[in-house]
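Side project, low priority. Logging it here so it doesn't get lost.
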Amino acid sequence: MGLLQDWLLKGTSLTISALIRRWMGSLDYKVVYHDPNVDPAFPVSRSQKRIYVFWHEYILFLLYLRKRCGLSMLLSRHRDADYLEQVARIFGFGTVRGSTKRGGAAAILEMMSQAESNHLAITPDGPRGPRRKLAPGCVFLASKLQLPLVIIGLGYQNPWRVPTWDRFAIPRPCSRARAVVSPEINIPPNLDSKELAVHCHAVEAMINRLTDLAEDWANSGETYLNQIDMVSGPLNEFCYYPRLKSARTL
């Protein structure tokens, strides 16, 4: 990459990052946890490394909400991801470049290395789809490294959709954004190919179920007994999430 291209990449990435902060910062974020301790924003979560998985179309949600939370994100080696890599770094994410089709083995080795100090964040249908179909890398890593998976279902209120393979979601300003987070899911070690396929099927089904719940919740605007406000970035021991009153539990 030439000097001019390098400066253009960095300048454009800074502009995109500022736009994301302004745009995503206008949303109303709420979450339902099965166990709040799995959130990488909490200090109690930082010693236990985990693998967080969510669908590619909602990458802006976690990019903004969990910046500087000790996460490394798997991105493709395609040139389109150069800007995303720079933006992710500006938001305090580590990055690993690769996919199941390009640089897969090297990416897995790098993710193993990153897991020694960071949580891992993987969009298992990326970078080229099919949409909401899970590639086995995240389950393989969870088994190989004996790190728990945490599945995150995400949704916006009536978002705009980009005509890409993943129907990339762009939230409307000042709209609702919702997350439903699973407990830790432990994958057994030393899986054979059949066992790997069974666990992949189960994880894919759970991501879709939690995503459907989050999308329905965002569109309905309902209030749930166990919902909590979400704020951006890492939290210290003096921060807390206020509990809201309601008559329903998600």
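Brief comment: The first strand starts at residue 28 and ends at 33.
Revisit when time allows.
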